[in-house]
Amino acid sequence: MHSTIPGLGEPRGPRFVSPALSTDDQSTGSTPVVPIPGALTGPDDPAHGLADQSAEADSGASRWPRLLLAGLAVVAVSAGAGGVAGHLTAGDTPAADPGAAPAGATGSTTADLVTAADQVLAGVVSVRVTSGGRGASGSGFLIDERGHVVTNSHVVAGGDTFQVVGRDGRRLTARLVGRDPGTDIAVLRVDPGNALRPLPLASAGQTRVGEPVLAVGSPLGLSGTVTAGIVSALDRPVRLGGGARQPAVQTDASINPGNSGGPLVNGRGEVVGVNTAIATLEGSGNIGIGFAIPVERAAQVAQGLIARG
Q1: What confidence tens digit (pLDDT) does each residue in 73-122 have?
Q2: Rounded to whole angstroms, what are the CA distances from 6 to 9, 49, 68?
Q3: Residues acting as catalytic residues
Q4: Using one digit for the tens of pLDDT, what is the confidence trace for 189-223?
Q5: In terms of DSSP H, where are the helices of the chain?
Q6: Cα dihedral across residues 29, 189, 145, 112: positive or negative
Q7: How many whole angstroms separate alpha carbon 106 and alpha carbon 180?
Q8: Is the distance from CB of 37 to CB of 17 less than 8 angstroms?
């Protein structure tokens, strides 16, 4: 979704897409090349009409940042069975002030991140969704000993059957417990007693701007992929799944199609967010601006879905 800046013709600004991957057949082990969903918008496209178009007529130098931001849209990187969109409302609400770092929130060394990655991979899964002979995939992670897996709602939307694939390559049949499109959170459940290990969740208010983080998941079908970055901003207002604006964790850790629903973890191996959307320029991939649902919000929604399911 985009708008034209008067006098400048077609814009070339960033887009936002949520990282789920279309996969009709990933059994070959090859890396599929897929179009970024949301690149085309129209009346039948789920992204159409979700951007908040401002009619405000600005003047002077301050007009240009507003015009550029008006061309940004948060779109789920998904295809196949799912696909949702949203809108980045940057500029209205500043990122949270990191303030004084709490006890224990120290910088992580490379060794810390290596240890964290090894611990986290045991609880991260690839999520495979099929519907009417078509497929889609994303990522997810175990949150308890009962076999509950958190992922994105847009990953599982419209799916008929669900599987999760663990670190050891085993495919486990999953059932959909529930999903909340407004927050883009969904919960699957697999039989307990498998080799998956629940991931610890970071305490509310502990995440800080500049803190090293890892994005873990299955970008482009490459399961068990870990990318590193930092927390770029907190409380970034983002509209996801057509719901109300919600604060998101912004990161420069590389997130790509297939990462949707995977965890964003800190140097202690604790989940700080659920990877959901990325910014991308037309014709390119990740540009270092990704968004994750804060873990406290994701956990609250997930527990509600589990209680009702």
Answers
A1: 455 544 334 443 333 434 344 444 444 444 344 456 788 899 999 999 99
A2: 7, 19, 12
A3: 154, 184, 260
A4: 999 888 899 999 999 889 999 999 999 999 988 99
A5: 63-70, 110-121, 153-156, 295-308
A6: positive
A7: 34
A8: yes
